Amino acid sequence: MPKSKVFASFPEAVADIPDGSVIGFGGFAVVGMPINLYEALAKQGAKGLTCVSNGTRGGSTMPSDAPTMEGLIGNDQVAKVICSFTAPTRASQKLVFSEYYQKGLIEAELVPQGTLAERLRAAGAGIPAFYTPAAVGTELAEGRETRVFNGREYLLEEALPLDYAFIRAWQADSSGNLRFRRSQRNFNPLMAMAAKVTIVEVEEDFLPLGAIDPDDVHLPGIYVQRMVKVPPPPEGRWPQRPGEIAKQEAERSAR
Amino acid sequence: MSDGAKGLSRQQMCDRLAMEFEDGWVVNLGIGIPTLCSNFDFGDKQIIFHAENGVIGYGPLTGAGKEDLHLVNAGGQHVTLNPGAAIVHHADSFGLIRSGRIDVTVLGAYEVAENGDFANWKMAGQKGGGIGGAMDLAACAKHVFVAMEQVTRNGRPRLVERCAIPVTAKGVVNLVITNYGLFAITPDGMALREIAPGVSVDEVKATTGCNLLIPSEVPPVKSRS
């Protein structure tokens, strides 16, 4: 009987993450974002991390105090980010990342979103590099290798392997077979496929083996090493409705 | 405009671009002004809206309190799904973008040049930037439409000879709507196709930073197809 993949708590699941790890975080806007794992890693305190994600925050549809990569940056845990956004999406948005980046305290690699997804997929598929038409002719392609196929120019991009993937899923069975709901899937399976160790926060109670039909598995358990069930609020972190967020933000600013 | 600027409102701008969508087209709308294209009444035309996060076939925004917290569009707004919708992961979502399955992408921009170059990911002198899916979409969609204001907040033209800030993609823009009119990028340069009510051709010329091909009679911007 192999060791159980189920961990009792988020701190236990991230306890051994060493300094200097390359960690990919799933999620797009707040959906599918591993907010409990972000929080646990901020408490765990590993430093010199390279963090890979679509952006350093989750867009406007999340509470200002929600744990994201921003918390790790403000905690001086991050050496470098690899993202498709390294600037606020709106002028009014203030990012901890921007403050650190302006001061030269953090490195950043800006990658087109589709290239980021494909670099992760390639790492998970045993492909070291590929050519893409995205970013050809832009500042991002300056000084880099391009090649013409069938009369069109393409840019060489390398796979992006990860030490760890932190992801969030809807359902899991005890072997780690996962299902995502609606747009929760986004980067989550790709982060897992690119990583040596995948840690999942799971929304629903763990299902027994065989409860998920093999045809319905979105990510096979062979990609998953550790899982934690997200406790109900307030102990566990859950996405909230925009109305609830607005109410909380108003209360916060009134204080 | 809600802010008192001249010409078309943002919704009117997006309505004009949406009239160009053909039955069965797969459409990707950038965040900001372009999202308003989905408010257009397409009548009998079937339009499939695709979002970068892998949602194919989303519908209108959800009402307050009715949000599905697992479902957002590319702008992070809670949306509904139309019958027949499908969901894929991010790599498949961009696989269908790069393989040419998006008929049109509508993007916002800081500048569009007369040669079809455009810039929308980095302002002058900015450290870092926000690309999101714009470079993949601009390089690979069958049509690239831009929706933006005619001039910057400081009154400088956004339609220019050459982009002064880093480009998102080169030579890809087909059609531009601003509050002043509809412009097409042609092999001969930038052409004024239609003009907003209340705006004169001289006003368009004075606020455009490149040569314009102007027909002797410029029709008004179509308000309904």
Share of β-strand residues of chain A: 15-25%
The dominant shape of chain A is globular
Summarize the main sheet of chain B. Answer: 10 strands, mixed
State the low-pLDDT regions of chain B, or none: none
Q: What is the general shape of chain B?
A: globular
Given the structure, what is the number of helices of chain B?
4
Please state the structural category of chain B.
alpha/beta
Sheet-strand content of chain B, in percent, reads 25-35%
**Going across the major beta sheet of chain B, what is the strand order?**
4-3-2-1-5-8-10-11-12-13
Q: What string, H for helix and E for strand, traces the elements of chain A in order?
A: HEHEHEHEHEEEEEEHEEH
In terms of quaternary structure, what is this? heterodimer
Structure description:
- Chain A has 255 residues and is an alpha/beta fold.
- Chain A has seven helices and twelve strands.
- In chain A, strand 2 (49-52), helix 3 and strand 3 (78-83) form a beta-alpha-beta unit.
- The relative contact order of chain A is 0.18.
- Chain B is α/β, with parallel strands linked by helices and 225 residues long.
- Chain B has four helices and 13 strands.
- Chain B has helices at 10-18, 90-98, 134-140, 201-206; strands at 26-29, 48-51, 55-61, 79-87, 104-107, 111-113, 118-119, 143-147, 159-160, 175-177, 181-186, 189-195, 212-213.
- In chain B, the strands form two sheets. Chain B has a ten-stranded mixed sheet, with helices on both faces. In chain B, strands 7-6-9 form a three-stranded mixed sheet, with no helix packed on it.
- The radius of gyration of chain B is 17 Å and the shape is globular.
- The two termini of chain B are 22 Å apart.
- The mean pLDDT of chain B is 95.
- The interface between A and B is large, with 56 and 48 residues.
